[in-house]
Design goal:
The protein is an alpha+beta fold. The protein has one domain: Roll (2,3-Dihydroxybiphenyl 1,2-Dioxygenase, domain 1), CATH 3.10.180. It contains three helices and eight strands; from the N terminus they run E-H-E-E-E-H-E-H-E-E-E. The protein has helices spanning about 15-25, 65-70, 85-95, and strands at about 1-10, 30-35, 40-50, 50-60, 75-85, 105, 115, 125-130. It has an eight-stranded mixed beta sheet. Strand 6 and strand 7 (about 115) form a beta hairpin. The longest helix has 11 residues, at about 15-25. The radius of gyration is 14 Å and the shape is globular. The two termini are about 20 Å apart. The structure holds carboxymethyldethia coenzyme *A (CMX). Carboxymethyldethia coenzyme *A binds near residues 9, 39, 68, 101 and 114.
Length: about 140
Amino acid sequence: MTKKINHIGIAVKNLETAIPFYRDVLGMSFEGTEDVAEQKVRVAFLQVGESRIELLEPTAVDSPVAKFLEKNGEGIHHLAYEVEDIEQALEALDAQGVRLIDRQPRKGAHNSQIAFLHPKASGGVLTEICQSGNH
Ligand code: CMX
């Protein structure tokens, strides 16, 4: 079902402060920033090999990432696995009794379709599946 790690999400308080470490110190290729209004986050993508680092900054006090930062501080927030067909993947996960946050795909960055599994269903690791959009 899973093809590769699409990205690793890292929660940060401020994108402008966080980007230079990944871009200038680690030498990753900066792909730009994007507002993901539905998720109340602003994200920055940095390419590393065939995967990416996704830095997530909350854009509202009730953003899930704001909640995460309050509880845990900055750090790894989620792992995202790419799938060929997200609707089929969600059906298969549901059929296996996996607890899902999203039963239907939502819009993610880069026109992707995304869905989250509940962290309690995956050993405390917030897991996203995503189907790439055209970018
Ligand atoms: N990793 C591990 N555990 C997490 C977690 C995370 N990132 N975020 C929350 N949890 C835990 C909480 O600590 C809580 O545990 P306890 O019950 O033991 O206290 C439990 O999961 C429920 O958390 P909650 O915030 O109360 O539950 P919600 O239903 O409000 O939120 C969640 C669920 C985790 C899916 C949501 O907070 C979230 O992070 N959504 C994803 C937001 C996001 O990253 N969007 C960007 C997508 C952009 C893209 O990739 O394109």
